[in-house]
Amino acid sequence: MSIHSGPLSPVPGLLAKQTIVSHFAHMQKAPITGPRFPRSDMRVENAERGHPGSRATAEENNTNRFELFLLGDGEKKVTEEPDTRVQSASVFTFNKEDHTLGNMLRSRLLQNPHVHFSGYKVPHPLFSNFELRVQTDGSITPRQALLACCKDLVNDLGYLAREFTKEWELRKMVGDTVDGGA
User: Fold this and answer.
1) Centroid of chain to Cα 130
2) Main-chain phi, psi angles of 50, to 5 degrees
3) Is 50 helix (H, G, I), strand (E, B) or coil?
4) CA atoms of 108 and 115, how far apart (whole Å)
5) What one-character-per-residue DSSP string does 166-178 give?
6) What's the predicted TM-score (pTM) here?
7) What's the CA gap between 96 and 122, in Å, rounded?
8) pLDDT tens figures, 53-66
9) Per-residue pLDDT averaged across 111-123, rounded?
10) Does residue 90 register a pLDDT over 90?
């Protein structure tokens, strides 16, 4: 059975589809002249002039990766602001850090029996900083509790690194002997 075009086509609508395809076929072959989208420099110029709807390109939005973790001139890593509403409480602001450190500090601080409250928040997701609020029972200051917490975390992470390296080396030795014997 052959498929042919014409009024007696065995496939319904085939004639109409072939007509539409042949009608638009010349458009696919025609070269596209001129830019299809506005040039990026035009968008930058429009953005500088304050025209609405002018957005920056991905390259213009992409910040340098080192700016996410290196401190600028005169920028401090941690600042402390005492909380005047609650006794023995402070808010620490960490610059160029994110949820990873915030959650580790919060959970480790809560293991300290002198800490009544510890919590953190990221004020805005586009900025890499967080605020850690610490309240103690008064026997130690929030700063002392945070320093003890940091020392404990450094010790724990050092132990984790040593154990991981030891296991990695043992796994490599076992893998070498198994592969060498085969």
Assistant:
1) 14
2) 85, 20
3) coil
4) 10
5) HHHHHHHHHHHHH
6) 0.60
7) 11
8) 555 555 555 667 66
9) 96
10) yes
